[in-house]
Amino acid sequence: MLSVIIFGTFSEPKFRMIKRNSFFCLWLALLLVAGSGSLLAQDDKNIPKLKFNLTGDGSSYAGIMMNNQVWTRYIWNNPDKNGVEQYSDIDLGIRRSRLTFYASLMDRAMIFTQIGYDGMTYRSERKPGVNIYNVEAEYFLLGDALHLGFGFDAKNGISRYSSNKNFEFLVVDAPGFTSPVSGTFDDFGRQLGIFARGSVSRLNYRVSVTKPFEYGIDSVSSPVTTERINENFALKGYFDWQFFDTENAAFQQMTMNNLGRGKILNVGAGFYYHPEAMLVEAEKDISTVDPFIAALLIAAGQYDRLYDMADYYPSQISDIFVAAADVFIDMPTRQGGAVTGYFSYQYNFFGPNYLRSAGRMNVSKMSADDALPQGPGNAEWEVGTGHIVRGEFGYLLPGNGLKNRLQPYGAFTLKAFERLGEASAQFDAGINWLMYGHNLKWTLQYSSRPIYTEIDDQQMWTSSKGQVILQTQIYF
Known about the structure:
Layout: E1 17-18, H1 20-36, E2 51-53, E3 61-76, E4 88-105, E5 109-120, E6 130-140, E7 147-153, E8 191-200, E9 203-211, E10 226-227, E11 234-242, E12 264-279, E13 284-285, H2 291-299, H3 305-309, E14 311-312, E15 317-332, E16 338-349, E17 355-358, E18 380-384, E19 386-396, E20 403-417, E21 424-436, E22 440-455, E23 458-475
């Protein structure tokens, strides 16, 4: 079997672009090799179907996984900073297109490489390129109890969502806050580092030491709390206890929707710690204003203008510390149904009053000068110092097998960030049509989004907008 996948353009990470022609040559060569071997259909649906043995006893094997997710959206855009309502957007975009190569060698080591493309819209740049998402070399030191790995990986801490299988979601996509340093100190939730992972009895664990990317500013003073360039390593880890069935740990990416294929009840906790990674917002130092000018302004009763002319005091330096606890349940019910649930609490500390917005695949044409502080289009306050509560619940309607099944679901998110004048609540509601499990899946979802307006120098939740997403997914 010979197939060709064409990846689109993505221009963000400068140093992770590879030539498209080289990618196609690699892809075609590997498929030809795979085609000459035996393609084994696996009973365990957590293991890819496109897999072939490298040795007669099966101790060495290799495989390929593919995943395409395409979004069709209707977006009610944010109003402008004056409260004027804006047009809505209808668009078609590529949320993910991924190709994964892996090989296990003599039950002693594994290599894992993932390439592809995320986030293409009609407003994306047109120069073609493919991004590298994972490059891992992993050694099995004590069987399943201890694996030691090196490379560019997503063995993340904080929560189950932070190391998810992006083709086995209950909702249409992972909430942005589950990757709290995305685009600042990591790249697509990945960092360069060394990790250890494994399972001991019913305890599943992963810990890593990473070298975050040098995003941020090189300064001694900042008017807002923001990332700073630093040379410090980060520590992260996640630990969960598996009460019933133990999950397949071949790749350590965690399902968020197991479709009742086992009895799963896991309770976990995790963290992310990056020392001295933030500059704390500084106040104005009036003594930096020229004394003569200061005297004139004070005499004229224009004392407030001193602050406009003053420099900032040096900023204090803060650590990043994020911690979370979560519960995941996925249980079969009578007549072939299943219930799936997830609940988490996350605490973020990035320094006083830190706040960052994001808009996934944002296609708004509004300028930043005309937009609300949270941004134009579908932007929202995604990450900040404070507290986040997340809940999800889905029900796979009774039936036989995983063909042509329906799974309605709902989710909510509560955010209470220090810099915002009040907390917000938002929700998701949708349905999965499983043509054949997660391999052929359609998802239709509506998501609300809080709108914050500045009132009396505070960001207040004044209204909500939303968007509808139809996702088509093919995975094998």
